[in-house]
């Protein structure tokens, strides 16, 4: 059986309230227009679509680990680079997870990189070594290593020049727990 064209809108309206004002035909003709709620839902969809498109193009570092503690929406994971905190969606202590960190979420600090913990909310902090940098038209990508794990870090050309990163430099990297996603490992022999 084919789905009626209006049934999708009706299903959305069941979930989100009235989204479309409908006017039946007549001397002035009929038509439909979005309600305020419909416009807000469409705007929200557009924002989410833009975020997903951007996320798909940003390289990320993926590290395997085991959940050691859970505190609300955040969990602490034991990884090859040490303890890392991130957002989760239903993990438990002992679960195997992947820690995913987007290159646009990480900040590089040259020198000893010491910052008063009360001056930043970036709870994930690691010492790293610069492995190299690649320069694009407007963005540079630094590759830094931490205990054999390579993090990619996106930065403006201006920041890259100011930092003057060269291979072998010791740096600090930081990123917020809220910019870290924990994804449960699938069981089985999937090795993609």
Blueprint (SSEs and pairs):
Elements: H1 5-16, E1 20-23, E2 31-34, H2 36-57, E3 60-71, E4 74-79, E5 82-87, E6 96-102, E7 107-110, E8 124-135, E9 139-146, E10 149-156, H3 157-163, E11 170-175, E12 180-184
Antiparallel strand pairs: 1-2, 3-4, 3-6, 4-5, 6-12, 7-11, 8-9, 8-11, 9-10
Describe this structure in words.
The structure is a single chain. The protein is of the alpha+beta class. It folds into 2 domains: 5-57, no CATH class; 60-184, RNA polymerase II/Efflux pump adaptor protein, barrel-sandwich hybrid domain (OB fold (Dihydrolipoamide Acetyltransferase, E2P)). Helix content is 21%, strand content 43%. It is built from 3 helices and 12 strands; from the N terminus they run αββαββββββββαββ. Strands 5-4-3-6-12 form a 5-stranded antiparallel β-sheet, with no helix packed on it. Strands 7-11-8-9-10 form a 5-stranded antiparallel β-sheet. It is elongated, with a radius of gyration of 23 Å. The chain starts with a helix and ends in an 8-residue tail after the last strand.
